[in-house]
Specification:
Layout: H1 15-47, H2 51-67, H3 69-79, H4 81-101, H5 105-133, H6 136-167, H7 176-179, H8 181-195, H9 209-228, H10 236-261, H11 276-306, H12 311-339, H13 342-362, H14 374-396, H15 404-437, H16 440-478
Helix pairs in contact: 1-2, 1-5, 1-6, 1-8, 1-11, 1-12, 2-5, 2-9, 2-15, 3-4, 3-5, 4-5, 4-8, 6-12, 9-10, 9-15, 11-12, 11-14, 11-15, 11-16, 12-14, 13-14, 13-16, 15-16
Domain Major facilitator superfamily (MFS) profile: 18-470
Protein name: MFS transporter
Pfam families: MFS_1
Length: 490
């Protein structure tokens, strides 16, 4: 019996080879999220960049990625997923070359925005390809490979950054972390052009261009003054920018609600936030992802600027964090099916314990080596992976029917925006602590206290989410109706 794919056609015999090609492209995107952290001090020295510019180099990529994720998916529906995927890969390669050749911090920041935009165009097509290429009995395995690659990218990003900076081929230094994308992206483009089948959505929805512009401008005006305000002594324009951001984001919400009332497809359907589990889930995503992104950023700065580690030594220090994340991300979905949301709560506590262990290690009189940090980072990484992998399913479990796709897009956008906010806000606090305490160790301790608080907030919100669902299930049973879900302790 021949297999039938998600589009009701005979499954492509080259589907696993095609998957390997599109996974390479996703791996490249994830790699660029993490590989930059190790190279930041080298960029700072070479480009004479202030700490604020370093924050923007990281955050600019995430902002460009965040605000266009939903739009990227819509472009694939309208103009063909293969076509848009290839445009995204080509754009990513071109933007990577721009990053690698940038002669100033400002040029690099602009290039990183375009790199993020290209990633947002590319990545949504990958999940669409998996849904369409694979029959139901193979889809779980394909999605499992996709998830594992995301975790592997965190490990490889840190190591690859350290190794490339150590190699310093042709004297290019930190530029290699971007230029390495050129041969990888070119091969992915050529094979994808040959192997992938094109497809479009039967029902084409209009793009919410105004919503994209409002959200992009609002986030930009909010994050930029947070990242650079302290560097310039919080001038009047910084507060004006924050006020303008508040106005634009309010207009965005009102505009999105108006689109929904008129029957159009908004970038962010406001009715989703009336669903309590989804609303709590957004706060969970904000606390969890902002802390995670900030952790990678400040740890790299502490290791290299504070302890004087080389980029390769810094990369080694990230290995236990990433390895714990990777291993836990593979186990967490299986554990969640048995124990429910208690697994995510345990993961949040593991994160907090790991950060407390780091506070103790960093506070020792002798400068801690990366071996002393191994166990706390391993525990923190395991906690991150335990929460991260099942979190999307947990948040979206209360959303059904026609809103499922929109909710997934909003959650992805929100998680990316949370990472940019975490880097901007906690990165700024790190720099402020350093200016007042004049000690990298005490500054890292203060920053880790904030990360511990965010981990505990994640635990509290996950507990609240479970409590609300239990209460809802109890009311349903009391009313004489059958429970909606058989999952343990949602």
């Amino acid at each position: 019996m021949s297999l039938v794919n998600g589009a009701g056609q005979a499954a492509d015999p080259r589907r696993w080879l095609s998957l390997s090609i599109i996974i390479v492209a996703v791996f490249m995107v994830v790699l660029d999220t993490f590989i930059v952290n190790v190279a930041l001090p080298s960029m700072q020295q070479d480009l004479h960049a202030g700490f604020d510019k370093l924050q923007l180099i990281v955050a600019a990529y995430v902002i460009g990625y965040a605000v266009l994720l939903v739009t990227g998916g819509r472009l694939g529906d309208l103009y063909g997923r293969k076509t848009i995927f290839l445009i995204g890969v080509a754009g990513f390669v071109a933007a990577s070359a721009w990053c690698g050749l940038a002669g100033s911090a400002n040029a690099l920041i602009v290039a990183r925005v375009f790199q993020g935009v290209s990633a947002a165009v590319m990545v949504p097509q990958v999940l669409s390809f998996i849904q369409l290429m694979f029959p139901a009995e193979e889809k779980g395995k394909a999605l499992g490979i996709y998830g594992a690659v995301l975790g592997l990218g965190a490990i490889a990003g840190q190591l690859a950054g350290g190794l490339l900076l150590k190699a310093d081929w042709w004297g290019l230094g930190w530029r290699l972390v971007f230029l390495v994308n050129l041969p990888v992206g070119a091969l992915a483009f050529l094979f994808a052009a040959k192997l992938l089948r094109d497809s479009r959505a039967p029902e084409r929805k209009r793009m919410d261009t105004v919503g994209v512009v409002l959200l992009t401008a609002g986030l930009g005006l909010f994050i930029y003054p947070i990242a650079v305000g302290s560097e310039y002594g919080w001038p009047l324009w910084a507060f004006a920018s924050l006020a303008a951001a508040a106005v634009l984001l309010a207009v965005f919400v009102r505009f999105e609600h108006g689109l929904l009332r008129r029957g159009f497809s908004p970038l962010m359907p406001t009715t989703l936030f009336r669903i309590r589990p989804f609303r709590i889930g957004m706060f969970i995503a904000l606390a969890f992802y902002s802390g995670n992104a900030a952790m990678f950023f400040i740890l790299s700065m502490y290791l290299q600027n504070g302890l004087g580690s080389t980029p390769l030594q810094s990369a080694y220090a990230f290995v236990p964090l990433a390895a714990g994340y990777f291993a836990a991300s593979l186990l967490a979905p299986r554990l969640r099916r048995r124990w429910g949301n208690r697994v995510l709560q345990a993961g949040a506590l593991l994160m907090a314990f790991g950060y407390v262990g780091l506070i103790w290690v960093v506070g020792r009189e002798s400068e801690p080596g990366w071996l002393m940090m191994f166990l706390p980072l391993l525990v923190a990484g395991a906690g991150q992976g335990t929460v991260s992998t099942p979190l999307i399913h947990t948040v979206l479990a209360g959303v059904h029917g026609e809103h499922a796709g929109a909710a997934s897009g909003v959650l992805n956008t929100f998680t990316q925006a949370a990472q940019a906010l975490g880097i901007a806000i906690i990165g700024t606090l790190y720099q402020t602590f350093l200016a007042h305490l004049e000690s990298h160790g005490r500054t890292m301790q203060q920053s880790l206290i904030i990360l511990t608080a965010l981990a505990l907030l994640t635990f509290a919100l996950l507990t609240a989410l479970s409590f609300k669902r239990k209460a809802s299930a109890s009311r349903t049973v009391d009313a004489g109706a059958a429970p909606v879900s058989a999952e343990p302790e949602q």
